[in-house]
Design goal:
The protein is mainly beta and 164 residues long. The protein contains 2 helices and 8 strands, in the order H-E-E-E-E-E-E-H-E-E. A hairpin with a 4-residue loop joins strand 4 and strand 5. The termini are far apart.
């Protein structure tokens, strides 16, 4: 059961978070040109429209919000903090999804290093933040979330990038 719906609703009537994540998956998989006045709409195509379009972009980063308004975060093995940032890997027919957990890789001013983020830092990134795939994936029921916020279109280096 999703936010704002009762048990009597048809399973075909999926929530907006499920629809948005499915759309993000489609956008990441295909590049279609459409116009949309909303500059950070999760349904905005092609991938790259949240910034300036580029063939190199492969990820639309987003955050999910629980019914109580809190940001959903996932643990990252070996890190003392959780990440609220995700990339959709797969969406299953019953509105479950496998999400890849991302973390910001902050440039340290000299451009030669990085620092880890924590709690509030991770919620408020600057425009010069690079993003890293943590190697962690999480499977979620998209009907358990009430809101989705698209953050940015970026290129995240994934292991399959070495093969292609």
């Amino acid at each position: 059961m999703g936010c704002g719906r009762d048990k009597d609703n048809s399973s075909k009537d999926r929530g907006c978070v499920c629809q948005a994540v499915r759309a993000i998956k489609d956008i990441q998989d295909e590049a279609n040109q459409e116009c949309n006045d909303c500059k950070n709409d999760c349904f905005l195509e092609p991938l790259g429209s949240l910034v300036s379009p580029s063939n190199r972009l492969n990820t639309r980063i987003f955050k999910l919000y629980l019914k109580n308004g809190e940001t959903f975060k996932a643990h990252i093995k070996g890190c003392p903090w959780k990440s609220p940032f995700f990339r959709v890997k797969e969406v299953f027919d019953n509105c479950c999804a496998t999400l890849q957990v991302l973390k910001p890789d902050y440039a340290d001013g000299s451009g030669s290093g990085s620092r880890s983020g924590s709690g509030s830092e991770m919620d408020t990134m600057g425009n010069n933040t690079d993003w890293v795939f943590t190697g962690e994936c999480i499977t979620v029921d998209l009907d358990c979330f009430c809101a989705i916020q698209c953050i940015k279109d970026v290129h995240v280096f994934l292991e399959c990038d070495e093969i292609n």
